Input
Amino acid sequence: MLSGMKGYWYRFAALLLLLIAAWLLWSGIYTPLLLGLGALSCVLCLYLAHRIGFFVELFSARAILRLPRYWAWLLLEVVKSSLDVARIILNRKLPISPTVIEFDAAPDEPVGQVVLGNSITLSPGTVTLDVHNGRLRVHCLTREVADALLSGEFNRRAAELMKD
Amino acid sequence: MQSAVDVLSWILLAAGGAFVFVGGLGALRLPDFYTRMHAASLTDGMGTILILVGIMLQAGWSLAAIKLIAILVCLLLTSPTASYALANAALLSGVEPGNSRAGKAEN
Amino acid sequence: MVILFAVFLLTLLALTAVAIVRTENLFVAVMLTGIFSLLMAANFFVLDAADVALTEAAVGAGISTVLFLGALALTAEHERSVVSGRWLSMGIVVVTTLILIYATFDKPRLGDPRAPVHQHVAPWYLDQTPELIGIPNVVTAVLGSFRGYDTLGEVFVVVTACIGVLFILGVRRGGYSPSPDGDRLTTAGSGLRHHLIPKVVGRLLIPFIVLFGLYVLFHGEYGPGGGFQAGAIIATGIILYALLDGEAQALKAVPRPVLMGMVVGGATLYGAVGVAGIALGGSFLDYSVLADDPVKGQQLGILIIEVGVGLAVCGSLLSIFHAFAARGRH
Amino acid sequence: MYLVVSIAILITMALALVRALLGPSVYDRMLAVNMFGTKTVLLLSVIAFLYGRPDFLDLALAYALINFVGVLAVLEFFQSRSIRRAADRVDGG
Output
């Protein structure tokens, strides 16, 4: 976990790179005028980001490198649970057993908890209702999904993603 | 080679269309608000991924494909956030999260 | 097939419109208006009018819901039902509808090349744009140059509307000082800072929303987009910040004098380009004289007025938003 | 194939609209609006390719970026309303 001034400049550079990349990839027109306007826009956005305190949130730099693997795992999870939920919806009897569960998030940092919460919502069958003080409240479509979630695979993966 | 990519992208698009439709059906069939959210997340997650990746394969390596990736990333960031905001708004206004037959499983 | 899509979307649109009129719960009406706007944008898009669709998207996706809810916070949630005069208004509506339907029989078919609209100035615009202005997006050429007067007028309409709203709702000096009656109401305006997920994701997206707005602004000559859309998108980005961290914080990040400067400066910039045209020996809003090459001059002029439009629209929308929010707080 | 997908999306839009009209609660309607938003993004992307105009993707990107602002506004609205109501209750006695 980077912190202090060094971390600040690190995140500053990361956002600048992302903005420049976004502009170049969106624009597709590389005349001097538009490139100049693009540079101006990136600087403007960066200044605005500074004013709104964009660089306050902490995240580990190495987490970005681990992101592809996490996404691959999450994609698999989304596919599996999507098939399950589709089967439930198409089932004539609608075999649901809605359950609300609460558990502690393994990642300590806010960003890690956000990743965890949004990943849970993204995979069908589970919706994050509330994240408060490191505790998640999740609505599950069936009891089996709830049990699977409580077994902590999501939690472990998210914590692994965020660890230093 | 091209035809293999074509076939794959058609399969993805068809599957995406199917998931989107099933999600829409679920939003109608499921009994209460919180369970309907699951149907919505079915279309928002799986349907979106399949359809956008399917189009991406058709677009090939071009700026359009990159714009599609941007759209996909934005949607995958914003749609769970919107779901959270919605679920939380309902929770705040005292809509009880359901006929929880199992009760609360405390961890 | 285009017709089929358009008819389907229009049917949904009509259903939504009827539902909006029928519901007495204003909150429900706001929600349905969101669907209405999405359908409208999709409809424009299907009919190949990407510029208009983008405008609808920029305004309808975020700002209109936010402003409607801001207004709703100031009033009651249920509409008072009006009983008297129902049949009379019903009759008027039915008669008008029948007249309108009768009038459509004289209308040319959609996309008919012999339609009067395609015989008049439209072919001339299509012909002359590449030659006189040299940009791919004819819509921007028409709005920015050929019909620059109209767009100038529209900008002043937006500015006037902003002034009107500020007069009606009132602006307090130093807007973001905590309200006198205690902390309770201050927390009411403190936004979603206790909600981790919106806070982190929203803050991550704000720079990209603003960048996208600027991209739309500067690429109006090449693709769908331009000043109006850009102003609305950028304003949405800042309103998002206001939702996350509270309106007071947003006012600190983009203070009121800056907003006023954007409104006035944007409109003035547009007018100044016109005056510069006169000064350089052309006529008002004739950009050809702005550079040595008339085509370059046109492009430069359009770019500058788009920036002016964007500034004015963004400033106006944000001022209106803050006026609503401030009113709700007191 | 784009045609089939766009028809599936249109049908889903109609289903979401039914949900929005039926309600019953305001949250169900809000959910329908939300679904409608993502369906619009998908429809726009598909149609952009159906017409062979990939530069029109900007529109879909605009929706993808800013469509969730409305839902956040709803959350903020309910939050401040519940705080205001609690305050009124305290004031009232």
Observations:
- DSSP finds 14 helices and no strands in chain C.
- The radius of gyration of chain C is 23 Å.
